Amino acid sequence: MKKRFLIGIALMLLAAVGLFAQTPVQSWAKSYNRDGQIDLYASVGYWLGICVSATGEYVIGEWNIGGIPFDYGVQVMGIFENYSTDILTETFSVNYWGVAPMFAVHMGLSNAPFEFIVAAGLGFYGYMTDEPSLDDQGFGGIGFATSETAIWYFADNMGLLVQFAYVGATSIWGIGIRYGF
């Protein structure tokens, strides 16, 4: 399911690039970042329970592929999810956490103040639970990490974001804010 989602996002980005490749770049593509910029992202959502994410990014530079500007940078993302569940009349809670260094690519639109970010890397994850049969709490391991973010800019350095992220063993989504300086 998660692989299908990621493949779908990649195909949509390729379709968007192909659709707009015939028009002059100045009319639809825009860079919203500058070299050396630091961006902070934070989001809150509800999936199986409360989801929280925080990300810091350092924008390294810009690729210009066929006249289309793509910004790129490195991110460090932290996620947390808490939920309670009932299994066979027993209620217990689970807290998942993850931390992931990732490489990110940005693509912005100039006709509307939107930017799309895709990031991937390796994640460190774990969990804590009060479920009695699970006594192997703590560090879960190292796994794949990804993040997909859409940002609507309402000011030069601030925007409203929607984000989906997966780190190792859990996925979260959230709505939040982006601040760049």
- Tell me the radius of gyration: 18 Å
* Main sheet: strand order: 2-3-4-5-6-7-8-9
- Main CATH class: Mainly Beta
**H and E string:** HEEEEEEEEE
Poorly predicted spans: none
**Euclidean distance between termini CA atoms:** 36 Å
Could you say which structural class the secondary elements and strand pairing correspond to? Answer: mainly beta
Number of domains: 1
DSSP helix fraction: 10-25%
Count of extended strands: 9
Largest sheet: 8 strands, antiparallel, barrel
Mean of all residue-level pLDDT scores? 85
CATH architecture label: Beta Barrel
Please give the count of helices. 1
The amount of beta strand, in percent, is over 45%
Q: What name does the CATH topology carry?
A: Porin
Give a short overview.
The chain is mainly beta and 181 residues long. 10% of the residues lie in helices and 66% in strands.
Structure write-up:
By secondary structure, this protein is mainly β. The protein has one domain (2-180): Porin, CATH 2.40.160. 10% of the residues lie in helices and 66% in strands. It has one helix at residues 2-20; strands spanning 29-30, 38-46, 50-65, 68-87, 90-109, 114-129, 138-153, 158-167, 170-180. An eight-stranded antiparallel barrel has the order 2-3-4-5-6-7-8-9. A hairpin with a 2-residue loop joins strand 4 (68-87) and strand 5. It is elongated. The model has no long low-confidence stretch (mean pLDDT 85).
